Amino acid sequence: MTPHWHWIQNYQVKQIPIKLADDTIIYLEGVRSVLFKPWVNGRTGRTVELHQVLHVLKIQNNLLSVIHLT
């Protein structure tokens, strides 16, 4: 999840409610992929494409699900 819409490639609008741990409801605004360019040992690493990234305006920071990476 990210609040940064400009990172998302081929943006697809979707309105889906998301329930947080404190029972607050926020809404997914869109979904698609993000190109991630890691910085490793002072150099740019190989670009990685993350699929099904959720755009959620009401979160403060990016959230990454490790289970989806493995």
What does this structure look like?
The chain is mainly β. It has one domain. The chain contains one helix and five strands, in the order E-E-E-E-E-H. It has a three-stranded antiparallel sheet, with no helix packed on it. A hairpin with a 5-residue loop joins strand 1 and strand 2 (25-36). The longest helix has 4 residues, at 66-69. The chain is globular. The two termini are 17 Å apart.
What key phrases describe this protein's structure?
70 residues; mainly beta; three-stranded antiparallel sheet; 1 helix; 51% strand; globular
Write a brief caption for the model.
This protein has 70 residues and is mostly beta strands. It contains 1 helix and 5 strands.
Helix and strand run: EEEEEH
Q: Look at the helices and sheets and give the structural class.
A: mainly beta
Total separate domains: 1
The description of the largest β-sheet is: 3 strands, antiparallel
Helix content: under 10%
The dominant shape is globular
**Rg:** 13 Å
- Terminal Cα span: 17 Å
Which strands sit side by side, in order, in the main sheet?
1-2-5
Q: Please count the beta strands (DSSP E, at least 2 residues each).
A: 5
Strand % is over 45%
Residue stretches low in confidence (pLDDT < 50, at least 5 long) are none
Helices, strands, pairings?
Layout (H helix, E strand, L loop, with lengths): L7 E12 L5 E12 L2 E2 L2 E2 L3 E8 L10 H4 L1
Antiparallel strand pairs: 1-2, 2-5, 3-4
